[in-house]
Amino acid sequence: MKIITLTEDEFNELSSNNEYTSYYQTSAYANFEKNLEKYNIHYLGFEVDDKLIGGALMLYKETILGYKYAYSPRGFLANYADFNMITNISKGLVNLLKKQKFIFVKINPTVIAKEEDFDGKTIKENDNLKELTALLKKLNYQKSTKDLLPNKFIIAGLTKDNDQLFSFFSKENQSMIEQGRDKSLILRLNPKDGLERYEKLVKGKAQDKTINYFKQIYTDLSAKNLMDLFILHIDTNHYGMNINKIYNKEFEKNLSMRKIIESGDRDRYNIDLVLDDKITSDKALANLENEIKNSTVLVKKYPNGIDIGICMVAKHGLGVEVVTNYVHPEFANLNAEPFFFYEIMKYYAAQNYHYINLGPIILKNNKYPTNRKGFNSSIYNYIGEYDLVINPLLYKIYQKQEK
User: What percent of the chain has pLDDT over 70?
Assistant: First the structure.
């Protein structure tokens, strides 16, 4: 195997046609990291018999004694199930980078270790995991103690059939999606003033610290058509009108049931069943009355409507990935997130994407949060981050300095 230098365009072409790719493995992301973290950039290609079989984005910096370390975000563009390929790439990199005074190369590939449900039960494991882990160890990869990227994600499949996609969701999410339509929630894609609206929405919140980061990554990646920005907006006037219409319809239904119950005509009606439906309707009316009060307040406070949520989505290869999302807690009672994600999933399914990564997830009190449950999704665990050690002595010194 031969390692060659690729141009930016050559690397982007390789990345866009590679099944193992992600937006992290693009020149747009490389330039974002260059501006943010002052990395240098190099694009490598892996050739066998003059055929390009893979590649790597290498971000690198100088560190101790004029030596360098490299970072290949989301790992090499290579098939990690092909052990010969990984062996040849790793040995080739060690031979090449040793001459160029590199200490190590960090990778965090999208190799799945296992799939879990939201109760933490294993659905499926990678049959090759033990062999792959043993191979990496043999090739002098060290498990990193400091991860740069998350390694647990919520991923859901997409289908162009909107009815089928909707049917995959939990009953609770289906109900919230329908309510979202009733509440006049509107999605706006890549508005010209999107970044200003994003900043206004999250300013002063916990997300405030990351405003500049996300503004910059959106600017850099959207310029290459690799990222979209969705704004979730509520039309407060239509919301008020819709809720009143729904209330009036429910009230008429409730009144009809009341008349049936008062008639006591058990020959024509199943009074017990009607009574149960009437109790359910009473609860619905009480909830709608509260919503009418809420909508009246919203109309007075925001007569021109208001943005209540944002979502940035990176797109590359066969899938898309939620980079950040936020729904204002003041509007939590609108249960907007299921509607938000459903509309986003519909949009990307229509664009021929196969899956959506709904973002990272972490255990809290030995349990997974359930706010992303019910989207026909599972939790996927990647194998984590590894350092390909090139200079063992300096690697130990570097690790001590980083602690």
Answer: 99
